[in-house]
Amino acid sequence: MEDTKVDGITEESQQAAWRDLREFLDIAKERGELVVVKGADPHLEMGALYELSLRKTYPPVLLFEDIKGYPKGYRVCTNMRTSPLLVGNLDLEAVKNLRRARQRGIKNSIPPQSVNTGPVMANIQRDDDVKVLSFPAPKWHPLDGGGYIGTECLVINKDPDSDWVNVGTYRVMVHDNKTISVFIEPGKHGDIIRRKYWERGQPCPIVVCVGQAPVLGNVAGSPSGQGVSELAQAGGRIGEAIRVVHGEVTGLPFPADAELVFEGFMHSPEVESRPEGPFAEWTGYYASHTRPEPVVRITRVYHRDDLIVLGQPPAKPTYPGRQFNLISIAALWDALEAAGVPDIKGVWKLRGGGTRFINVISIRQAFPGHAKFAGMAAIGTVGAFMGRINIVVEDDIDITDTAEVMWALATRWDPATQTDIISDCWTGNLDPTLTPAKRKSGDLTNSRIVIYAVRPFHWKDEYPKVNQFDAEELEKVRKKWERELPFLRL
Question: What average pLDDT score do residues 43-47 get?
């Protein structure tokens, strides 16, 4: 992998980038990280250019302008989520920084501030004038079932039994000028809320925002507890309230400085559904196939002048630009500590495992069963959803180095005695291993493996010693010889 260290980013510029999409683009341009692409075709060509950009660990931010078939002022931006401006260094220190930011957002949550208007209200389409097809919805991958306008979006709905407004990120497919579908896995908060309306015989009010400040996409894509306000968390993250306006039809809040927002109602699938998918997902497969999904009937569209649609379509997780999902790593670490697991020294995900499949947890063993405690907690918290492989190692292993993790597996793991396999665990339609029979019956469960690649606690002091110099001794020798031997210079 190419160098994953970045510099020249101040806390002030990073906060400004998190706070505002257009300011993010200005800063990325100043840093030479923005590439403007004019005249690309949204039918596969934009998707191909995006995939080609993923050959770099830090892909350039691509801003598509003069998109074929669309008005001159309509733009699409990709690779925001993987920008060094927001990600920083791809290491454990970046995870710790994200954890601190998450905890600050939760501890210092600032409720959103309602305002009467904002840039997103510059243009409004109402009722019969709604034309969803007038906005760029690229066909990102060759076998996709249609155009997807929502791949880095906010899906907003409100619990009918409380004041809880939930903000999640789910994929959004365009069907026609008045209709979109939102694919939500069973058990996600957006799904739990919509089913409450359907059980009452009512459609679920819903808002879909497809361009917004980076901080909002960050919190929407992170696991949060039920009843937690992502809008308030985002305010706590940036130190100021998110300004929101309210939809004319649903009354739901959405960012006043959003780029493009759809408002409407989602009826139950028994009332109305459309074929959704297939769509190439983060697993690297078209696993969810095509199924009937409930749709949103759009009654209002709000958008800024010269609007920007955010696009972050999934791709095969082996590309360098499909970075480690630091957000989900930070969330799992938080959850393990909240579950009471002590002496956690790091949490990571192995490359190629997508955003969820392979979790690695580093501990400093303190008592018998410590490793099992950590492993079982991982599959019982936010790691439960599709977290198929869970590896526990000791803190002398560099979990950000796949070779080190594999070395621990090869030399400290006994498959017969240091493995747990758990059945009937939570998975989803995106899981490529889900059998056709289980998929058809709605049985979204599979198994998990927990691997304890640690020295057995009861005889760990007698375990063969590692062939390695002490770090302090190595540093002492390096400093002594670095002037004479250039290869030693840092």
Answer: 97
Per-residue pLDDT at 2 exceeds 80: no
Indicate if 381 and 450 belong to the same structural domain: yes
Residues 108 and 133 reside in one and the same domain: yes
Looking at residue 1, what is its pLDDT? 44
Is the pLDDT confidence value at 246 over 70? yes
If asked whether residues 364 and 272 sit together in one domain, one would say no
CATH number at residue 379: 3.40.1670.10
Q: How far is CA 179 from the centre of its chain?
A: 25
* Residue that has been written with the tokens 């389409």 in this structure: 125
- pLDDT exceeds 50 at position 181: yes
- 319's tokens: 């590309």
pLDDT in tens, 360-382: 999 999 999 999 999 999 998 87
Q: Is residue 4 part of a domain?
A: no
Residues 280 and 346 in one domain: no
- In this structure, is residue 486 part of a structural domain? no
**CATH code assigned at 254:** 2.30.110.10
Interval 80-110: pLDDT, tens: 999 999 988 889 998 998 888 888 878 889 9
Report the C-alpha gap between 416 and 410 in whole angstroms. Answer: 14
Furthest C-alpha separation in the chain: 79
Q: Which residues span the domain enclosing 429? A: 326-462
Closest CA to 350 of 378, 382, 371, 322: 322
Identity at 303, one-letter amino acid code: H
Based on the fold, state whether residues 332 and 301 are members of the same structural domain: no
Please tell me the total count of domains within the chain. 2
Q: Within this chain, do residues 305 and 340 fall inside the same structural domain, yes or no?
A: no
Q: Do 292 and 362 fall within a single domain?
A: no
CA 364 – CA 286 distance, rounded (Å) = 39
- Give 292's pLDDT tier (boundaries 50, 70, 90): very high
Decide if pLDDT at 403 tops 60. yes
Report the alpha-carbon distance of residue 286 to residue 486 in Å, rounded.
50
Token pair of 197, please? Answer: 């309306």
In contact, 454 and 414? CB cutoff 8 Å:
no
Assigned token pair, 85: 């401006």
Q: What is this structure's pTM?
A: 0.91
How many whole angstroms from its chain centre is CA 236? Answer: 19
Q: Of 39, 105, 31, 97, which is closest to residue 68 (Cα–Cα)? A: 39
Cβ neighbour number for residue 13 with a 10 Å cutoff = 16
Contact at 8 Å (CB) between 177 and 194?
no
SS3 13: helix
Q: Tell me the backbone φ, ψ of residue 447, rounded to 5 degrees.
A: -105, 165
Reported as a pLDDT band with limits 50, 70 and 90, residue 254 is very high
